[in-house]
Amino acid sequence: MAMEISPGKTTIGWIGTGIMGAPMAGHLLRAGYQLSVHNRTRSKAEPLLQQGATWADSPADCAADADVIFTIVGFPADVEQVHLGDKGIIHSIRKGAIVVDMTTSEPSLAKRLADEYRQKGVSSLDAPVSGGDVGAREARLAIMVGGEQDAFETVLPLFELMGKNIAYMGPAGAGQHTKMCNQILIAGTMIGVCESLIYAAKAGLDQSAVIDIISKGAAGCWSISNLGPRIIKRDFAPGFIVEHFIKDMKIALSEAKAMNLKLPGLELVEKLYERLAQIGSQHDGTHALIRVLEEMAGE
Ligand code: NAP
After folding, report:
1. How many angstroms separate the first and last alpha carbons of the chain?
2. Is there a single domain that holds both residue 88 and residue 165?
3. Of 27, 68, 142, 215, most Cβ neighbours within 10 A?
4. 238 lies in a domain?
5. 17 within some domain
């Protein structure tokens, strides 16, 4: 029988309370769910603990009593550690539970997790998100999900507390593949956003006025509306950090290679971001790309 999801009945584990995870977990707490939380740096979980979540010392502790456990950590190696490591979720998770990884990670790792958990009688979903820090805070994320469709339908009420556009994309790994399509699109867009603003400045235009008008026409997109104003203010706080974006582009390039596919546009953007990390912006937001493009433009 499918698990019934409700604040009175469902216990949730949450691992990863960073830029995205903290506000996403906060939405579940505010809806009345009991949450056990774990993060590498405990201080980043403190606001959630003050709202009533309980602290767990390890991923295994966090998962022990959970019906549904969410993870949104940094890199594929972190996903592997919190799920399959010495104190990983897999060692304590109960039969019949559902595990949901919302990190942007490798499709192949999502498939491996699904196989490992299946042997324990546990369902696993890959459910990466898009919409940035703003989307996480406002519960307006797009959530793209791979795995067993029954498990997706069971946890849908929880996804609906965090996102506005939620889609089942296919078997394990399909959520991560969809997120790679998202990242390939954003990568190309970021060059356009930055070069357009560099050009506007050189032409003597008011950059804010340019954003106002062009974001309402065919060039309108999330990046120009949300990141353009931050670029103008030279506010490079993340948002979405450069080293995570490089991780995503490398995953997409490696998956493309495995499919005998060449993506020259993505290769170019990845190199520009490598340069950005080299000049000290690895922990800045992705919109700091303008620093490299200004350097190359002779600004
Ligand atoms: P973040 O702020 O670095 O948050 C990651 C959190 O996971 C941190 O609190 C980190 O703890 C914790 N963590 C990492 N490894 C861990 C481990 N092994 N054990 C326990 N906790 C661990 O990153 P974020 O921006 O929230 O992004 C999270 C994921 O979502 C990334 O895969 C990113 O690519 C993806 N994503 C981000 C955005 C965005 O706009 N920010 C949008 C869509 C998708 P510490 O603080 O101790 O390192």
Report:
1. 63
2. yes
3. 68
4. yes
5. yes
* 3-state SS, residue 70: strand
Return the pLDDT at 1.
61
Dig out the tokens for 198 from the structure.
């560099």
Q: Which residues contact 228 (CB under 8 A, 6 or more apart)?
A: 193, 197, 207, 211, 215, 287
Residue nearest to atom 1 of ligand 1 (CA): 18
Q: Is 40 in the pocket of ligand 1 (CB under 6 A)?
A: yes
Residue with tokens 């995870």: 21
Q: Is 3 within the bounds of a domain? A: no
Q: Active-site residue among 44, 120, 164, 179?
A: 179
DSSP state at residue 45:
G
Percent of the chain clearing pLDDT 90 (strictly above): 98
Residue 1 domain-assigned? no
The residue from 172, 187, 209 where one domain ends is 172
Structural domain count, the chain: 2
Same domain, residue pair 240 and 269: yes
Residue 273, domain CATH: 1.10.1040.10
pLDDT for 178-192, tens place per residue?
999 999 999 999 999
Residue 24 Cα to ligand 1 midpoint, Å, equals: 12
Q: Has 179 been annotated as catalytic?
A: yes
Residue 11's beta-bridge partner residues? 34
Backbone angles phi, psi at 172, to 5 degrees: -45, 130
Which residue, 229, 77, 105, 184, is CA-closest to 125? 105
CA-nearest residue, atom 31 of ligand 1: 74
Over the chain (299 residues), the average pLDDT of each successive run of 10 is 88 98 98 98 98 98 98 98 98 98 98 98 98 96 98 98 98 98 98 98 98 97 96 97 98 97 98 98 98 91
